[in-house]
Amino acid sequence: MALLEVRNLEVRFGLRSGEVKALRDINFSLERGERLGVVGESGAGKSVLGFSILNLLSKPGFIAGGEILFEGKNLANLSPRELRGIRGNRISMIFQDPMMTLNPVLTIGQQMVECLLAHRKISRKDAKRIALQKLKQVYIPSPEKRFDQYPHELSGGMRQRIVIAIGLLMDPDIIIADEPTTALDVTIQAEIMDLMLELCERNNVALMLITHDLGVVSQVTRQAMVMYAGRIIEHGPTREIINDAQHPYTQGLMNALPQMAIPGQRLNQIRGSMPPLQNIPTGCAFNPRCDYAMDICRSTLPEYVRSGGCRVACHMVAQQLAENAAPQTLEVK
């Protein structure tokens, strides 16, 4: 049994104009110690997926169908009390902006100790000892001093390390990291990602990394899942997707990496933008931006096909696979 298994997940938002689908037909699993990258542009549904797993969706969002199984328990059906025993305890989430995550009127130590006391029956002395231990794990210099400081007294990189330390407080089985390096400069980004990778490997923690950067995914994860307009369009081993992307959207993301451009020329980009949830195109949602779109792409939602080790939702890929599988007839003269 997989540690986490998501089956046919569908998330909707109730608007005045009617319900819109934010996530459609989401299926994947996460094993203990596995590292999964979730990639896509803004609006693809990556963060909504992370929030859905922990049932943190705020109204008007709601889980409309499917299952989110953690060790066989469906998180979508648990009571608030049961969820509190898992959320932040067995499954932790690291959010994009540490200044929005940390309480500005409480010291770092107060926030860490309160988190421990909420989940464990231990003394404040033991809670402080554990908190200092976690600060040392994420290489915070002078942890005793930082323990008594407020978030605004720390740098961006230091705050993000604090958030990671809080995520590790309860020794979780899964960490969901939602764009954990967005607000940081490039050198600090590399340090934070190296730190997360080291901690996950050392503690055998499963990592679900949500990002728009395929470059980061290629360095950190073993499996990758590319999302577009609320649907998974390609899913498989990271190395295979990076080296031989099948879906035109994944190819576009790869070509948009700065290192793929010719020096002195404009960077490559995917034309157009992500469609709004209220106006997702019929058929393949990517068809208005796709250079290979066919008539079937504009009318029929593509089914998943297996290409190598990857699962791909693309009519063009399905057609190529069918052509390659067709028996070749020899012409007799």
Automatic annotation (TrEMBL):
Compartments it resides in: Cell inner membrane
Domain (ABC transporter): residue spans on this chain: 6-254
Main location: membrane
InterPro entries per record: AAA+_ATPase, ABC_Ni/Peptide_Import, ABC_transporter-like_ATP-bd, ABC_transporter-like_CS, Oligopep_ABC_C, P-loop_NTPase
Membrane topology: Peripheral membrane protein
Pfam families noted in UniProt: ABC_tran, oligo_HPY
Sorted UniProt keywords: ATP-binding, Cell membrane, Membrane, Nucleotide-binding, Transport
Catalytic activity: a dipeptide(out) + ATP + H2O = a dipeptide(in) + ADP + phosphate + H(+)
GO BP field: peptide transport; transmembrane transport
Enzyme Commission number(s) of this protein: 7.4.2.9
Entry GO terms, CC: plasma membrane
Keyword Calcium among record annotations: no
GO molecular function, one term: ATP binding
Family of this protein: Belongs to the ABC transporter superfamily.
The protein, known as: ABC-type dipeptide transporter
Species of provenance: Marinobacterium nitratireducens
